[in-house]
Amino acid sequence: MEPIHSYTDKKSYIDQIDPISKLLFAFVSIFITYLFSSIPITCFVLLISIVLLMVGRVLRKIVPLLAISFTLLLSIIIVQGLTHPTNEMPLLTLGTIVFYQEGLTFALLITLRVFNMLAAFGVLILTTKPDDLMESLMKQGMSPKISYVFLSVFQLIPQMRATLGKITDAQRSRGMETEGSLMIRIKAFFPLLGPAVLSSLNMTKERAIALEVRGFSSKGKKTFISEEKSYFYPKFVRCGLIILLIAAIVWRIVG
Amino acid sequence: MSKIRVEGLKYRYPDMDSLVLDDLSFEVEKGAFIGIVGENTAGKSTLCYALTGLVPHFFKGAYGGNVLIDNIDVKQSEISDVTSKAGLVFDQPFSQMTGSKTTVYEEIAFGLENSGVEREEMRIRIDNSLRLMDIEHLQNKNPYDLSGGQMQRVAIASVLAMKPDVIVLDEPTSQLDPQGSDEVFQVIAKLAESGITIIMAEHKLEKLAEYASKILLLHKGKQIAYGSPKEVFSRDDILEYGIAPPVYVRIAKALKLKNKAGFYPITLDGLKQQWNVGDE
Ligand SMILES: Nc1ncnc2c1ncn2[C@@H]1O[C@H](COP(=O)(O)OP(=O)(O)OP(=O)(O)O)[C@@H](O)[C@H]1O
Ligand SMILES: [Mg+2]
């Protein structure tokens, strides 16, 4: 099995950007896709996230996530395609079932937004050492408790993967099919999801206790074992992102 | 003066009806190795939380009595002050890793960073802990790439680096395979020899019989017995508390091999000795 931690230092250009800028990027990028209800703009924003993932050499890691979310989004696409209130123009007819252009367009926008959300956060999570993000946030004056929430988000995916691995092993040892064709795997996957989510939540609770006994919420001054990293002009990058955000808002209001 | 004094400790989790700890009173000498035994839901884990301040600071609920470490009341201290004196190790290796660190070395540093230890001092303490836990060769690995036994030793090293006088371990080997479990017991024995007070909830009674100086037997939150392993494991009513005594005790029982004080031997060596005495 692949290692379960999500970050490995790829020494790419993206690794040199400071964590706060990447966090800011994720928010700006997601905000813009909601500011404009436009498919071309959302496509463009998504494209930027994907290019950044490529530069960071982590695009491959995000693909399974996109695939899983797409299977969940399928139901939205079908429902909207069939029943969106503004549906007028039939686009696709399968026997007696008619998919309309308006509904499908709407569903496409949602899908692109979700993809961009995953990709933009992927840029942050997959190219940032969790500890560096935590440290940056705490140096910005954020409380350890809130930084911990970010940490948990980092943890969720590797944790679920670890648990899924364990449960799959257990089920295989009881003779359940977990390998083979895609269909067999999908069938085996869904019954696993419940236990995986539950045990991840439980682990999150256990981890909270474990952090607590290691002085995590101690109010005194903290020290850091690693020397401070130097990043690529953090102020410059952050200013650039904020200007971009303001420009987008102005364009939306004026345009 | 005893290291830990528990006086009439009572505790109930929030929104629950019954007491999980019901009037516990015992003392622990400095450097002792105490085994906590009892069937599932006896309250072992909860007692471990109470000894490290998680109860009542992290888990609220109804609390009565006192837990004193070095004569200082846990209830009235900050939780971080308690845990720097009495560290806690859990059963699950995986959930004890912070997840924010990418090497074992940094993982062990986490608690020290939180308590504001200077970098130079941190390095000294981490190196010491790595050596004691026999994991120096793993220091640059990602904690998540380790085996359960290795991860558990990292967890103990992280606690050890905080220089506690007491280490509380809640079934630290229950999730490990036999090899990992042996590795962990060996390092715990080392700690006990170095003078650290060890308190350990454990189902593997053979191991406790080998290492523990005293056994605390809990049942439904009540303290049934607190005494030497021989004394506690020789009790005729021990099965009623859901405890199967160590295998050597069961053999000795079947052979009716008691010593003069009326206790059964609890280890293989003890059994052999008793057998020879019986022969004479
Ligand atoms: N967070 C909690 N909230 C409410 N009740 C709890 C909580 N944790 C444990 N309990 C209850 O307290 C009782 C004692 O649990 P505890 O975990 O201390 O037992 P234990 O002796 O450690 O058992 P095991 O051998 O299974 O680890 C149980 O009845 C349990 O259901
Ligand atoms: Mg327990």
UniProtKB/TrEMBL annotation, chain A:
The keyword Magnesium does not apply. One of its GO terms (cellular component) is plasma membrane. The keyword Repressor does not apply. It is a multi-pass membrane protein. InterPro entries: ABC/ECF_trnsptr_transmembrane, ECF_transporter_component. The chain crosses the membrane at residues 23-55, 62-83, 103-126, 236-254. Keywords: Cell membrane, Membrane, Transmembrane, Transmembrane helix. It is found in: Membrane. This is Cobalt ABC transporter permease.
UniProtKB/TrEMBL annotation, chain B:
One of its GO terms (cellular component) is ATP-binding cassette (ABC) transporter complex. Residues 4-245 form the ABC transporter domain. It is found in: Cell membrane. One of its GO terms (molecular function) is ATPase-coupled transmembrane transporter activity. It is a peripheral membrane protein. The keyword Membrane applies. SMART domains: AAA. It comes from the Bacteria. InterPro entries: AAA+_ATPase, ABC_transporter-like_ATP-bd, ABC_transporter-like_CS, ABC_transpr_CbiO/EcfA_su, ECF_ABC_transporter_ATP-bd, P-loop_NTPase. Keywords: ATP-binding, Cell membrane, Membrane, Nucleotide-binding, Translocase, Transport. Belongs to the ABC transporter superfamily. This is Cobalt ABC transporter ATP-binding protein. It comes from Oceanobacillus chungangensis.
